[in-house]
Amino acid sequence: PRLFEARPNLAEPFASLLAPWRERRDLPRDVKALKIDSFELAASPVPGVLQMSAVLRNDSGSGVKWPALELSLTDSGGTLLVRKVILADDYLRAAFGPRREAARAGLNGYAELPIKLSLEARDITPAGYSVTLFYP
Description:
Layout: H1 2-6, H2 11-18, E1 34-43, E2 49-58, E3 68-74, E4 80-86, H3 88-96, E5 112-120, E6 128-134
Antiparallel strand pairs: 1-2, 2-5, 3-4, 3-6
């Protein structure tokens, strides 16, 4: 600790170097801290594909584990057409690409993540949808 007080510029490189050996604590699974700020499902120019965009938000002051999303598509009468579970790895891959390992720490307190995904939707024409956050 005294070395880092005298040379604060060394703190981050040492922390990165020692990261694999540090004790990792699991973040809480706090679905009540999370909400979807906005959600949109639209037809894509590609037939049989829907574009989903959402903003996942953590309203708590501490980090939480990434949740899964359950997307339910319904017809005009409210009958379920299809239910799809979108795991955290799926939307983190879309949001961060090869840098998704950096996101493994979870969603920080008071932070948000925009999510954009293309979903295959052949032979269905949904009229409504619902989204639920949960931990598998």
